[in-house]
Amino acid sequence: MPECNNEWWTERSLPVKILMVIGFIAAGFAFLAFFGWVVMALWNALMPEIFGLKAITYWQAWGLLILSTLLFKGMRHGGESGRRSERKRKRYLRNHLRDDEDSVPEDGEPEASL
Among 57, 61, 94, 107, fewest CB within 10 Å belongs to which? Predict the structure, then answer.
């Protein structure tokens, strides 16, 4: 039984590793293709009957996915940079709240500010 998580990978031969990577890449593309098909199928099953809209093609479904990502997630909030800026904002707010707590005297009465 492997003691370390990396042992199972190091025990594999190079051709097996290459086939595994190719398999994972193919599975990723298959998942993405399936995801686009699901969006198209849901749109075509619901939107024409509910709202009277036209049916869409597979590539139009992908266009909708990309457009909705840009509109609802935003370009600057995606990825690692968005997480970093969110952490920075939270840290700033925590420091600001801590500074406000430090300005309240021990007796509980806030300081008068002009």
Answer: 107
